[in-house]
Amino acid sequence: MAFDVPPGYRALKEADISAYLSGIPAVSERLGGKSADWKVREVGDGNLNFIFIIEGPAGGVVLKQALPYLRLVGESWPLPLRRAFFEYQALTTEAKVAPRHVPKVYHFDEILALNVMAYLHPHIILRKGLIRGIVYPKLADHMATFMAETLFSTSDLGQPAAAKKKQMATFCDNIELCRITEDLVFTDPWRVADGNRWTSPQLDATAVAVRTDGPWKRAAQEFKLKFLGEAQALIHGDLHSGSIMVTEDDTRAIDPEFAFYGPIGYDVGALIGNLYLAYLSQSGHEAKPGERDGYRDWILQTIEAVWTLFDQRFRALWNKAHAGDTFMPALFATGPEQAAFTFAQDAYMRRLFVDSLGFGGCKMTRRILGLAHVEDMESIADPDRRAACETRALRLARTMMVEGASFADIQAVNDAARVVQHEAAKVSA
Ligand code: SR1
Ligand code: MG
To answer: Which of 106, 140, 228, 282 has the smallest set of CB atoms within 10 Å of its CB?
Structure first.
């Protein structure tokens, strides 16, 4: 297939990498020594791109190059190279307010559609840690900070309208990656679509039932409408547990190539929804029932802390670092006006909460019935056990999407997750 690539673009091979990087002082200084001594390895197991790790005597870097097609599917699914540009723009915007929670970018090459960035070591992908049952004591604190800082600062509360509109104009062009989300997250699980798959035959009846579940389908379309129309802030756009790298002490959000101006709840929901997937997959990873009870509790505590800290920090920024053209604290200066301001903040945060639950439910559903699944579930070898976990996850996802507004707070959602975990997993959603 002929792809739309700029003159000069070529997909780099391991053997090309050292020569390419030796011409970039910011990178070669970081690696140290001679380029002949640098060790290069391709490690990409993601859905979209090639990832190389390069290590020299002084340090390491990661080189991430976009291909003109979707790696997961192959050359039959063309995908624009400019996703590397959007990732660069998003990482540098995020770094202005949350530098401790993103990888530093050392070099961006628009022609080759690649970014060279910090090699996060000894970090691992959060999803893999959750499957192994590793506790990350600072995860909630760090991710709440990352989301509050990045989402507040790019919202109409955190920056003037003119600045926001200029940046929106840039990210509006991330059409194709948004389209992937629009189809795969909000539509395909609720219709017959190429690439949809599920644990079969265990979930065959469920997949059919989901396609005729009017309230669930309607909720998916309501959230799709929000995704298409609510340009609240520059969102990461793919903030699942595979886009977060962790150690016990450090947390970094990677891979914001899906970034655009969209609904804040999409990021918060991606994280919360993927943590619920981790929670409900634990019974597929225990050698004996109950072995991971303590770990399940930790995941729920983390979900509670993610929302609670995000809510606190977003409000604190609103009160102390407001720089936007709406809801200026000074407009509500006197006593009675302050009550209205507090009311407005409560209403705004409540909307974000319900949105986050709904988007989280969409993300959970697509990982069980759609094209791209998650290792939390896929690594459960016994299909009956996997289907039981997936059925519980679908049940919670539906509740989060259809009945999100009925939850008083995040503890109530955790209670619903506990109930689902303890129910027998009938093979129907
Ligand atoms: C077809 S690409 C599948 C998924 O991989 C990315 O991580 C996004 O979540 C996308 O939807
Ligand atoms: Mg990714």
So the answer is: 228
CA-angle at 220, arms to 345 and 278, nearest 5°: 80
Give the CATH fold of the 124-428 domain: Aminoglycoside 3'-phosphotransferase; Chain: A, domain 2 (3.90.1200)
Asked if 393 and 350 touch (Cβ cutoff 8 Å), the reply is no
Ligand 1 binding pocket mutation candidate from 180, 181, 187, 197 (most atoms within 8 A of CB): 180
User: 419 Cβ partners below 8 Å, 6+ apart?
Assistant: none
Class of domain 14-118: alpha beta
Instruction: Please tell me what DSSP assigns to residue 103.
Output: P
Where exactly are the structural domains of the chain? 14-118, 124-428
Q: How far is the CA of 106 from the centre of ligand 1 (A)?
A: 25
Q: Pick the closest to residue 274 from 407, 409, 177, 139 (CA basis).
A: 139
Atom 9 of ligand 1 has which residue's CA nearest to it? 238
The reply to whether the predicted model has a pTM over 0.85 is yes
Digit-by-digit pLDDT tens for the chain (429 residues) are 567 788 999 999 999 999 999 999 999 999 999 999 999 999 977 778 999 999 999 999 999 999 999 888 888 889 999 999 999 999 999 999 999 999 999 999 999 999 999 999 999 999 999 999 999 999 999 999 999 999 999 999 999 999 999 999 999 999 999 999 999 999 999 999 999 999 999 999 999 999 999 999 999 999 999 999 999 999 999 999 999 999 999 999 999 999 999 999 999 999 999 999 999 999 999 999 999 999 999 999 999 999 999 999 999 999 999 999 999 988 998 888 999 999 999 999 999 999 999 999 999 999 999 999 999 999 999 999 999 999 999 999 999 999 999 999 999 999 999 999 998 665 444
